[in-house]
Amino acid sequence: MPVRVLPDQAAWARAGVELILDAARRATAQRGRFCLGLAGGGTPAPVYELLAGAPWAEMMPWPVCHLFWGDERCVLPDDPRSNFGACRHWLTRLAGLGLAAGQVHRIPGETSPPARAAHLYDTHLRGFFAGGPPAFDLLLLGLGADGHIASLFPHSLALAEDAAWVLATGPPPDVKPAVARVSLTLPAINAAHQVVFLASGAAKAGIVARALAWSGPGTPDLPVSLVRPAHGEPLWLLDAQCLGNQSGS
Ligand code: 6PG
Question: How many alpha carbons fall within 13 Å on the CB side of residue 65?
C-alpha cells in the first residue's frame, strides 16, 4: 500500500499539488484532457488554495481540465456545507486561466429528492465519459473518522452497489453535517486511473492507523479499505501528524 508522509501540512499540501500537476501532464499527453475528481470536506482546502494560486495555477492545463466531485451534501451550492461551495472562491480565479464554466461538473445536491440528484449526476457522467467507465485521471478522496470515503459510510447498502456510479446516501447520525448526500459509488471510484487518499492532522491518526493496518482476508469494515482501483493501488498522502509522529519519512 503506497504511503507518502510529509513532515508538515505545508509540505503535504505542496506534495498534493505536485501530484495533481503530474497527473495533469500525463493525462493531457495521453488523452488530451485531464479529469480531476475533487474530495469534499475540509482536508483538501490547503491543496486547492495552492493549486489555484501562483505559481502552480499557471502550470495547470486549465483549458483541457474537467473538475468533478466525489460527493456532495444535499444543500444549495451557496450553503456553507456545500463541497462545491467551499471551492467556488478559488474556482472563480481560474476562469481567467481557461477553466470555463462547462468544465466544472458540480453535483446538483440541491435537487430534491436526493435520489434524483444522484440520477442526474450519474447520467451526466455517462454522457461525459461517452459510454465508457468514469475514468477520472485522478480522484482525490478524504477520509472520515469512521473510515468513510466520499459519502460511503460504514455498513451502508451503497457499499454493495455494483452498477450505478452515483447514489444518494444518508449519513449515520454521528457524521457531520447530518444531511443527505450524493456520492460516487465504489464502481465509479475504482474506475479511476489514479486514487489518492488525503489525510492530515493528528485527529486522523487513529483511523489512518486502522486503515493502514487492514490487510485482509475477508471483508473490511472500513469503506476506505474497499477502494481497489483497477489501475493500481491508491496512494496515501499523509502528513507526519496523522501518523502520530513529528518527522516525515
Ligand atoms: C464530505 C467528504 C468526506 C470527507 C471526509 C473527511 O462530503 O464530507 O467528501 O468524505 O472527505 O468526511 O472530511 P474532513 O476532510 O473535513 O475531515
Answer: 27
